[in-house]
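Readers of this paper often ask what the protein records in our data store actually look like. Below, we set out a record of this kind in full and without editing:
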Amino acid sequence: MTWFPFMPSYRTYDDYEDPGAPITIGVPEPLPDDREIPDGVRVSVLRNFDADVDVTVHDGIPVTTVERTLVDLADEMSPRDVADMIERASELDMFDPEQFVATLERVDHPRGKPVARAALAMWIARGCPGARG
């Protein structure tokens, strides 16, 4: 499985049991009632979204930051899976632990916060693999 942490869509861990499960798209505000959502797509409204800090540009396309994406995914995934994604993002020199903590403190994810904290602790306990410097 390849993760593209800069993409605004994801599948939860359980979705991989069912290849026909929908893709989740994160949006900063609710869609209008008349907006048609294609089959196979589910929409999730991002909480505490701040475009000034949660958006970056990749190949000319505005996307959520890796740190914001990982914090959002922590709402749906296990600490081990998030720690693995932190490790991969770090290997790609795309992860900033300080930005991750700042995002985590700003965003309201009752389930995701403890998962994200546990994932960061796991990554640190592993010796911060992939970290540079």
